């Protein structure tokens, strides 16, 4: 049908999964999924999440009343501390002057996507510049989220296929020629789909350029702690922009780092110049949210605040989070070693250099199609593979397939 024809051209992981589900081969491998899998290929619910849920169930004083429009107050406070830096909680390191000075407004939203959408709607209504620059390439939903909110979406150069790394000069050039005040979408860490992040030094140059042109940073933080295993390190890009006292927006997701995908837990924080502006921003955010979904769901946010509030549970979470990040990093090393072991032509060092859940392999759409047909390996046609979908058992099969695809 015409819809299927149109869908087949899209680079959606969901389309990849539909094709994967139909494949009867026992050797099939789905590397299109954007969710963590264990070494056994199973979805994971963190122990600390199970424990928090049990505590919530056992607490008979808990009711199912509506949350306020902006969500659960504790959740909002703790989420802002997690990404921006904490003040009093010793187990959340660092200090954010913006929080201390009450310059941050945080609203609970429907995971990362909902946080981006609420932020986009707010900007479309209240910000003077309606152009947003997103990296090329970026997560497929960005264009739609911002476009449908009424912003004009433009791209800035990001990925260089020749080096399989950052096109830093192109990025600077494009931001330099953006109109003053334009919004710029930045992936806080673990850029999706490329796995390529700027270095700290490059972030500093980006910050200086953006501040000198009054460009407004809108961070998408979908992988805090999931990239390096360290919550502070993965938030450093955001914190650099907060430390200079300027404005920024941050959309946070707890889908990956707490494994709460389907619970749809996230937060939008808007860092303002003064406490007075932050108060007015909150009023406007309520007017954006109210006609969209009235107020957010209670369960997932309660899990997150239970964990972040309690020092022991927080530490337990960081250990489980690091284990997920380490497994992904180990998959990178194993795949790299397997390709080197096979003498596969090409420089595959980008597999170990790239960060986060995804690797942009550099395989072209024909090679991707070949691997699907001959090896039953499924990935998006841009050659992006989810490292979380791999295991020590499946690495040799993938390495064989890549070797065959590039040598045929
Ligand atoms: N931003 C990026 C870059 C992502 O990769 C994702 C998840 N794939 C999201 C936002 C949103 O995810 P969610 O809405 O599930 O939190």
From TrEMBL:
The answer to whether the entry has keyword Transferase is yes
- What EC identifiers does the entry list? 2.6.1.1
Top-tier EC class = transferase
Keyword Transferase assigned to the entry: answer is yes
Q: Start and end of every Aminotransferase class I/classII large domain?
A: 28-402
Q: What reactions does this protein catalyze?
A: L-aspartate + 2-oxoglutarate = oxaloacetate + L-glutamate
Task: Tell me the cofactors it needs.
Answer: pyridoxal 5'-phosphate
**What keywords were assigned to this record?**
Aminotransferase, Pyridoxal phosphate, Transferase
An additional note in the Swiss-Prot or TrEMBL entry is: In eukaryotes there are cytoplasmic, mitochondrial and chloroplastic isozymes.
Similarity field:
Belongs to the class-I pyridoxal-phosphate-dependent aminotransferase family.
Its assembly, as annotated, is: Homodimer.
The protein, known as: Aspartate aminotransferase
Location of this fragment in the whole protein: 74 to 481 of 483
């Amino acid at each position: 049908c015409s819809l299927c024809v149109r869908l087949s051209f899209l680079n959606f992981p969901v389309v990849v999964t539909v094709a994967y589900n139909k494949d009867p081969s026992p050797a099939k491998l789905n590397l299109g999924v954007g969710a963590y899998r264990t070494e056994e290929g199973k979805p994971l619910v963190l122990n600390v999440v199970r424990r928090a849920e049990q505590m919530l169930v056992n607490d008979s004083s808990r009711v199912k009343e509506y949350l306020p429009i902006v969500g659960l107050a504790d959740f909002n406070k703790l989420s802002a501390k997690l990404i921006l830096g904490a003040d009093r909680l010793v187990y959340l390191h660092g200090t954010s002057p913006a929080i201390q000075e009450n310059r941050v407004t945080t609203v609970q939203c429907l995971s990362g996507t909902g946080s981006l959408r609420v932020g986009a709607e707010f900007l479309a209504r209240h910000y003077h510049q309606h152009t947003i620059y997103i990296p090329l390439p970026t997560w497929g939903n960005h264009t739609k989220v911002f476009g449908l909110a009424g912003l004009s979406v433009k791209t800035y150069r990001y990925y260089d296929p020749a080096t399989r790394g950052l096109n830093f000069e192109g990025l600077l050039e494009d931001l330099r020629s953006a109109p003053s005040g334009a919004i710029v979408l930045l992936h806080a860490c673990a850029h999706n789909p490329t796995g390529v992040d700027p270095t700290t030094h490059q972030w500093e140059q980006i910050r200086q350029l953006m501040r000198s042109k009054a460009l407004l940073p809108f961070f998408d933080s979908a992988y805090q702690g999931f990239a390096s295993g360290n919550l502070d390190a993965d938030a450093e890009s955001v914190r650099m922009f907060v430390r200079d006292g300027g404005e920024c927006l941050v959309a946070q997701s707890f889908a990956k780092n707490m494994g709460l995908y389907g619970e749809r837990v996230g937060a939008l924080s808007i860092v303002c110049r003064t406490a007075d502006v932050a108060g007015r921003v909150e009023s406007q955010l309520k007017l954006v949210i109210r006609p969209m979904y009235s107020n957010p769901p209670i369960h997932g946010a309660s899990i997150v605040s239970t964990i972040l509030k309690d020092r022991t549970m927080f530490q337990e979470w960081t250990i489980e989070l690091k284990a997920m990040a380490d497994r992904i990093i180990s998959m990178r090393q194993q795949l790299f070693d397997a390709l080197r072991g096979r003498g596969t032509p090409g420089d595959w060092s980008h597999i170990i250099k790239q960060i986060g859940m995804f690797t942009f392999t550099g395989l072209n759409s024909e090679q991707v199609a070949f691997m699907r047909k001959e090896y039953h390996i499924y990935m998006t046609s841009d050659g992006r593979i989810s490292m979380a979908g791999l295991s020590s058992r499946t690495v040799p099969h993938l390495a064989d397939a890549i070797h065959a695809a590039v040598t045929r």
